[in-house]
Design goal:
Chain lengths: 303, 374, 420
């Protein structure tokens, strides 16, 4: 029994991790209708920035862990956002209004650039964070128990909270209205006085900040990263976003959790070798019956 | 028509540009191939650093019969396709011998290219049996074989640890799976049947469900065939979930990065590896030179150094020939004295004596971890 | 000239660069401590300032515009690539063909060069196949590598278990790949755009994972060795099989590995020409028109009575067939295959060739395939920087020519303003 409970928790956490990265993905997609292939690399960069600023906090003699974390988190989010901004400026803005595939290819190029840039700047070796904090919640006996660490609780909470905040922002604020207008009809939005270039830049910055929240929490949880982590994370997050219906924020979270649960349960009770096959087979099945994902808006066929 | 002409000239120039231009000189080119970029770049760096320092020292002492060694790097990213491209570019560059490659899955396809061009290849790191078992004349390795390593691990698990419930995990790579299979076979001869045999995916970070599964199976020993990145995460997540099984792995985790990923969970982890060359008296000078230059000669660095030494000596004694078969014959008949002690090879190209022993990670103070022979 | 404005722009750019690069380049992680290399970061920032300044000056003086114009003129003059080729691509291809056939026999040729060229041609075959799916039918396929793998492993396994020769394996493997294409096509008929993309990506990953996991059949990560093709029963290997006559023995030549390289190269070349010819014919046939029509407006097509099921399925099937054939040649050329050659990155590269070359274009795809295989080889000297440069090149080419190197302009569909 406790094994099943533990596996469900494992799946929930893994799913929240996928969801957290997928939210940034889906956010950008929802506004400009384009897969941001470099999102995974932005996440990878934020993991590096987190470790760098944490070390820097040590150099400045900030000993208290909460203060150091606050300082680190703030700087990581700002600089990662700036990376998102720069990527958009360099690889996407010049391609505004061209074919749908052009930005996809320049995004693949950009992710190669970022990956190799980090490798050259920081070296190819695996980086590690020492376990900083060990809080854990255990239920059950001495041997048989179900557990969840405090960091894992924070990850789940962060996913839900950021999903809620972003959904609110999109639906109820001026910025959200500008975003939705830009998505609907860019020319019209421009005519109505919305600076669509800035709106898109801002969306990229928000997307990158979401990636950095994910990068910080996940690095904190697993404790290791290298310049290659963005690739796997990107593909899994992309899968989660599409599963939930790309462009939908609650969908990203739902897709992530479904993906995480299915992987965990399959690995735990059937076989680890084939867990990815199962996850992708699930994706194909879901999309066969719901071609626009779980919470995606069905495409309106204009006649 | 002349408009086409321009395009054709351009195309031809491009094609031949790729072939590179020939340089005439009397340096002896020696190729060093490995994953210089990509996910395994750390190991490629070890190969390059080791071979380059050896070449520098040999050159400072007058080179090979008065000619200097020039190290030519080849980046295969551990991709078989790239490995063949690198091998062909080495052949094209007229290298005299090759140090490399790193991943067995690259070494094997590349070795066919070298074999056809009759070029000597010595890998410092590829431990898969297939590397030397295919009967190629001029392929050697200065490391051990997975089956030897698996035997040592299997015996240790059965006799020393007296394990009852063993889980065998591998990373679905030529190296990792080869190692896991060798260990599995050896355990079977001791009458131990594993309770779990599964493959993980490289690049994954979350192994919690695997750990929970092993907890449910109440395993007392986890054998892992793979490299440090995943090993560190698995052992860390196992300890987090309170799984106390002994963790044992192979030479893929012989790097300080393993301990920094695993953190305190590294304490007590076992692994098989050749006797640490850094502690050999013959290596003292070279190790000091490495450390002075700010580089810790971990894992395969000294293996690569040794490989370059063997190549240099074979070339020196054979009038600097590029005839791989001739060099191979000499190497098989000779015992070399290297920074890793005396090395001799059997008729397949494997080391006659391999010295796999079991190491244990322990806390060396100040939050750091180091490993020592058991 | 407005120097203050240029200075302001450059200052902003270098401020951003300062924030981006000081932590990433200037502070290098070393365990839990930092190795501070601020000078390195400042150097890069200075380069950004200078670069931005230069661009501003050029832009203001109108020099940049003129420079671009000059480059364009030079290109127009130098290569038929820009205008002429599109109209007379057959002549260009014919000429290129003569050069390609001659290359192995020219002085300065080597096995290395021939292998790279063979790989380029394999990519041309693959990209031609994907061009049907993406370029003509407009179906975004991110898992094309699945068919490539099917072809390569199909040949390897048919040879290993059924003892089939290379020549018998080609049609069989092509058939298997076609069946796979059809199989994939069925569930995705209702999907569009990115949903289609992710499902095809998933399909590619499933195939690769199966290849890795089914060790008893595929050899798993250890890979599988592939027999070399023969010419009318003449072998090309140093150690021949029992009872086999070697090419070199038959012609009384000393053994040379380059015979085999040249043989396989010419073989692939012949098939590449065939593939391109088939593609060209398909494009002009009713089915090709139907693909393009479906790409432009699916609803209109349905209304006009085009059967969108068979049209889409045929695109997937034919594309997959090309992919399978490309895989057979790849396996024959490499002599050893393992699953790491069939990752998602490979799909991305093939797609890049199609998009960089210009969707639906033949010459563009050839040029892009050359660029994508030759560029990393040319940059081999730079080792660490070569993939960085490669990525940058992809970004800049897309910005410079968003429609690909050669944008196909079809007179028949010239409507202006609206395009795929």
């Amino acid at each position: 029994m406790y094994i099943l409970g533990q596996q469900l928790i494992n799946g929930l956490i893994l799913g929240s991790i996928y969801g957290l990265i997928a939210i940034g993905y889906t956010m950008v997609y929802g506004i400009i209708g384009m897969i941001n292939f470099a999102h995974g690399e932005i996440y990878m960069i934020s993991a590096y920035l987190f470790a760098i600023f944490l070390a820097l906090a040590g150099v400045f003699g900030i000993d208290s862990l909460p203060v150091a974390l606050l300082f680190t988190l703030a700087f990581t989010i700002i600089i990662t956002g700036l990376y998102g901004f720069t990527v958009e400026r360099m690889a996407y803005r010049p391609l505004r209004g061209s074919t749908r595939l052009a930005p996809l290819i320049s995004a693949i190029g950009m992710s190669l650039v970022l990956q190799n840039f980090v490798q050259l700047a920081q070296g190819a070796n695996d980086q590690a964070l020492p376990p900083l904090y060990h809080g854990v919640l255990r239920l059950g006996g001495e041997e048989d128990f179900v557990q969840i660490t405090h960091i894992q609780i924070i990850i789940v909470a962060a996913t839900v909270i950021s999903m809620a905040i972003l959904t609110y922002v999109i639906n109820n604020t001026a910025l959200g209205r500008a975003c939705r207008a830009t998505q609907q009809d860019r020319t019209m939005a421009n005519l109505l006085g919305i600076n669509t270039d800035w709106t898109i830049s801002l969306v990229f910055v928000i997307g990158a900040s979401m990636a950095s929240v994910a990068g910080v929490l996940i690095t904190f949880n697993f404790g290791s990263f290298n310049f290659f982590i963005g690739f796997v994370a990107g593909i899994k997050a992309f899968t989660a976003a599409v599963l939930g219906g790309i462009g939908s924020l609650p969908g990203a979270m739902l897709g992530g959790i479904l993906l995480g649960l299915s992987e965990s349960l399959f690995a735990g009770f059937v076989n680890t070798d084939y867990k990815d096959v199962f996850a992708f087979a699930l994706l194909v099945t879901v999309l066969t019956f719901r071609p626009t994902g779980l919470l995606g808006r069905p495409e309106v066929e204009k006649i | 028509m002349n408009r086409y002409f321009g395009a054709v000239v351009l195309a031809v120039a491009l094609l031949f540009g790729a072939a590179g231009c020939e340089k005439k000189s009397d340096v002896i080119k020696i190729g060093v191939a490995g994953p210089i970029t990509g996910a395994y770049a750390k190991f490629g760096e070890q190969l390059v650093k080791g071979a380059t320092l050896a070449a520098d020292i040999i050159n400072a002492a007058g080179g090979i019969n008065g000619r200097k060694i020039e190290v030519v790097q080849g980046d295969d990213q551990c991709d078989p396709k790239q490995a063949r491209a690198v091998a062909n570019s080495f052949v094209n560059d007229k290298v005299y011998a090759v140090v490399g490659h790193f991943c067995s899955s690259s070494t094997i396809p590349a070795s066919e290219v070298y074999d056809e061009a009759n070029i000597l290849q010595i890998t410092p790191a590829s431990t898969n049996p297939q590397v030397t078992d295919r009967g190629l004349a001029a392929v050697f390795r200065t490391c051990g074989r997975d089956d030897q390593q698996g035997n040592v691990a299997g015996d240790f698990i059965a006799k020393q640890l007296k394990a009852k419930r063993v889980a065998i995990i591998h990373d679905k790579d030529t190296y990792g799976q080869g190692l896991a299979d060798a260990t599995k076979a050896r355990l079977r001869t001791h009458g131990i049947k594993e309770v779990l045999y599964e493959g993980i995916t490289r690049g994954d970070k979350d192994f919690n469900s695997l750990v929970t599964k092993m907890k449910g199976l109440k395993v007392d020993v986890i054998y892992f065939g793979g490299i440090h990145t995943e090993a560190g995460l698995i052992v860390r997540q196992a300890r987090e979930q309170g799984l106390k099984a002994t963790f044992i792995s192979g030479d893929g985790i012989v790097t300080s990065e393993f301990a920094s990923i695993a953190g305190p969970a590294a304490d007590g982890v076992l692994m098989t590896f050749g006797a640490d060359p850094r502690n050999l008296p013959a290596a003292a000078d070279v190790v000091k030179q490495f450390r002075d230059s700010g580089y810790e000669p971990e894992a395969y660095t000294l293996y690569s150094y040794t490989t370059m030494q063997i190549i240099a000596e074979a070339l020196a004694k054979n009038d600097v020939t590029n005839d791989g078969a001739k060099l191979a014959k000499y190497i098989k008949a000779t015992s070399f004295s290297t920074v890793m002690g005396s090395k001799a090879f059997d008729s397949k190209g494997d080391l006659k004596v391999t010295d796999y022993v079991v190491y244990k990670w322990y806390p060396s103070g100040g939050g750091k971890y180091d490993y020592k022979e058991l | 000239m407005n120097i203050p404005a240029a200075l302001k722009d450059s200052a902003v750019a270098s401020l951003i660069a300062l924030a981006l690069f000081v932590p990433m380049i200037g502070l290098v992680l070393k365990g839990q401590s930092l190795n501070i290399q601020l000078l390195r970061a400042l150097f890069v920032v200075a380069a950004v300032f200078a670069g931005r300044m230069l661009i501003s000056m050029l832009l203001q003086s109108g020099l940049l515009g003129r420079l671009v114009e000059v480059i364009r003129k030079v290109l127009v003059y130098l290569s038929p690539v820009v205008g002429l080729v599109e109209r007379r691509s057959f002549r260009f291809i014919g000429l290129l063909l003569v050069v390609l056939v001659a290359v192995p026999f020219l002085p300065g040729s080597s096995n290395y060069l021939i292998q790279i060229l063979s790989l380029t041609l394999v990519y041309v075959i693959l990209a031609t196949g994907l061009n049907i799916v993406v370029g003509l039918a407009g179906l975004l396929d991110l898992g094309f590598v699945a068919f490539f793998a099917t072809g390569a492993y199909g040949y390897a396994m048919l040879a290993q278990y059924a003892g089939l020769s290379f020549w018998a394996a080609i049609p069989l493997t092509a058939g298997i790949a076609a069946a796979m294409g059809c199989l994939l096509g069925l569930p995705v008929l209702r999907m569009h755009g990115d949903y289609l993309a992710i499902v095809t990506l998933g399909f590619g990953e499933i195939i690769r994972i199966l290849l890795v996991n089914m060790i008893d059949i595929t050899g798993g990560p250890n890979g599988i060795s592939v027999p070399r093709p023969t010419l009318f029963g003449l072998g090309f290997t140093r150690r021949l099989e029992e009872g086999q006559l070697g090419f070199h023995e038959f012609f009384g030549l000393p053994y040379s590995a380059s015979h085999r390289y040249i043989f396989i190269y010419l073989l692939i070349l012949a098939f590449t020409v065939a593939a391109i010819w088939i593609f060209k014919r398909l494009r002009e046939m009713p089915i090709g028109r139907a693909w393009e029509a479906l790409r432009e407006d699916e609803i209109a097509c349905k209304a006009l009575g085009i059967n969108h099921t068979t049209t889409k399925l045929s695109a997937f099937t034919l594309g997959a067939t090309f992919g399978g054939v490309g895989g057979v040649f790849f396996a024959a050329m490499e002599g050893f295959i393992n699953p790491s050659s069939f990752t998602f990155v490979e799909s991305a590269i093939i797609l890049s060739i199609v998009v960089l070359g210009g969707m639906g274009s033949i010459v563009g795809v050839i040029l892009a395939a050359m660029g994508i295989t030759l560029l990393p080889e040319l940059f081999r000297e730079f080792e660490n920087y070569r993939m960085l440069v490669f990525g940058l090149a992809m970004v800049f080419i897309m910005i410079w020519r968003p429609g690909g190197l050669l944008k196909v302009r079809r007179k028949t569909f010239a409507r202006g303003g609206h395009g795929g």
